[in-house]
């Protein structure tokens, strides 16, 4: 049998604000490095690109933008990085991604606009590279509050976060076939959460022969 080529795994971490996402992403990166695995961290929005700078200004409320337009910019920000993500994966590098298309759908659909249905919000991200696994850090509103409240950026308030969570739940049900989407209890100590994440990614981090899929295909 001809030897099939291994590629890196595409791991996405999603979660609400104050879920400990940034901490967990760095811990996971460190564990991969310590295990000698080539790893690259990607974060969305990537605020460094020209599109990312527009998004950054919007999130800081330095500028206003139509809700549809900002939604499409978030998606465009993923599309502009997609070729380099694919390149890294094909080179055998594990890509750990801090937020992805699921945040895109969740935050925009949570605005509850009649012209921004769940389906409409999902559409621009169709055919982006699909993660091998998505880990959703599930934090309770009580715990989020206990962790020091939200920051000053747009969307960082309890009411919005609650609506966002409901959309995330829907996404989880839609793609949660028992292997691709896991909700992880993020109310626990960070070490316990990190341990579970590490266990969950074990089937993937050493590389996979599975062809890279496209989102929602
Ligand atoms: P960050 O706090 O992880 O940098 O994300 C910035 C905010 O942008 C956060 O509230 C989630 C939101 N967001 C969207 O609205 N759409 C998207 O596509 C992404 C990736 C993030
Ligand atoms: Mg934030």
From TrEMBL:
Superkingdom of the source species: Eukaryota
Pfam families: Thymidylate_kin
PROSITE patterns: THYMIDYLATE_KINASE
Protein's name according to its UniProt entry: Thymidylate kinase
EC numbers: 2.7.4.9
GO cellular component entries: cytosol; nucleus
CDD domains xrefs: TMPK
Signal peptide segment: none
GO BP terms, alphabetized: dTDP biosynthetic process; dTTP biosynthetic process; dUDP biosynthetic process
Similarity remark: Belongs to the thymidylate kinase family.
GO molecular function, a single term: ATP binding
Keywords attached to this entry: ATP-binding, Kinase, Nucleotide biosynthesis, Nucleotide-binding, Transferase
Pathway it works in: Pyrimidine metabolism; dTTP biosynthesis
Thymidylate kinase-like domain residues: 13-196
């Amino acid at each position: 049998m001809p030897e099939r080529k291994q590629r890196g795994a595409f791991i996405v971490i999603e979660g609400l604000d104050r879920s400990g996402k940034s901490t967990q992403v760095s811990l996971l990166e460190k564990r991969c490095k310590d295990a000698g695995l080539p790893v690259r961290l990607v974060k969305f929005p990537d605020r460094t690109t020209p599109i990312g700078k527009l998004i950054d200004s919007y999130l800081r409320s330095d500028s206003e933008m139509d809700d549809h337009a900002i939604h499409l910019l978030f998606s465009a920000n993923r599309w502009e990085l997609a070729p380099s993500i694919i390149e890294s994966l094909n080179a055998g590098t594990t890509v750990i991604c801090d937020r992805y298309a699921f945040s895109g759908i969740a935050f925009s659909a949570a605005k509850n606009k009649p012209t921004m249905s769940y389906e409409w919000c999902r559409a621009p991200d169709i055919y982006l590279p699909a993660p091998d696994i998505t880990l959703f850090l599930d934090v309770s509103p009580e715990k989020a509050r206990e962790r020091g409240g939200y920051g000053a950026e747009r969307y960082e308030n309890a009411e919005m976060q609650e609506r966002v969570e409901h959309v995330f739940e829907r996404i989880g049900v839609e793609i949660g076939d028992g292997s691709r989407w896991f909700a992880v209890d993020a109310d626990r100590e960070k070490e316990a959460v990190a341990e579970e994440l590490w266990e969950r990614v074990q089937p993937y981090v050493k590389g996979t022969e599975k062809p890279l899929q496209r989102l929602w295909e």
